[in-house]
Specification:
Number of strands: 9
CATH class: Alpha Beta
Shape: globular
Strand order of the largest sheet: 3-2-1-6-7-8-9
Structural class: alpha/beta
CATH superfamily: HAD superfamily/HAD-like
CATH topology: Rossmann fold
Helix content: 25-40%
């Protein structure tokens, strides 16, 4: 797999928010390698994009579940600002996005989302600062971001 074909999905709440400085370096390094970095989040996208700008975290794509279903008319939005989206739609949105966009690896902290994935999913443990795929591939995110990127690059074909 050539480096330009690697597409990383990063969850915002629980992953990037857990360690924004680390994921700034991670994203910069990935993009400098010609990779795509997809921020895949519940949203809303305007709030997430604003926070990413504040933290100076670069990305190539931003997908927000809330905005996606709002555009499709499948989000109930209440006067107090709260919203409701069908649980099945919400829980499968990330996996469908990753499949449609050929994401090489999604790094996320939710075991609920992991169940619907047919593309590689790396469960992030914020306490230990690593993520692990179902097939046992592990990325140590406590080490410098460059090391994690090299590890992903070396194992991309096996993911």
């Amino acid at each position: 797999m050539c480096a330009s074909a690697i597409k990383i999905g990063l969850d915002f709440h629980g992953v990037i928010t857990d360690n924004p400085d680390y994921f700034r370096d991670f994203s910069r390094g990935a993009i400098s390698r010609g990779w795509e970095v997809h921020i895949i989040t519940g949203g809303p996208s305007a709030k997430v994009a604003s926070q990413l700008r504040e933290w100076r975290i670069p990305y190539t794509h931003l997908f927000a579940i809330f905005d996606f279903y709002k555009r499709k008319g499948q989000a109930e939005i209440y006067a107090n600002g709260e919203f409701k989206i069908d649980k099945q739609l919400w829980d499968t949105a990330k996996s469908k996005y990753c499949r449609r966009n050929n994401i090489t690896l999604q790094i996320d902290d939710s075991k609920v989302y992991q169940q619907g994935f047919s593309t590689p999913y790396c469960y992030y443990d914020a306490g230990q600062k690593y993520c692990t795929t179902k097939n046992g591939f592990r990325i140590d995110l406590s080490r410098p971001a460059i090391d994690a990127l090299k590890n992903i690059e070396q194992h991309a074909k096996q993911l």
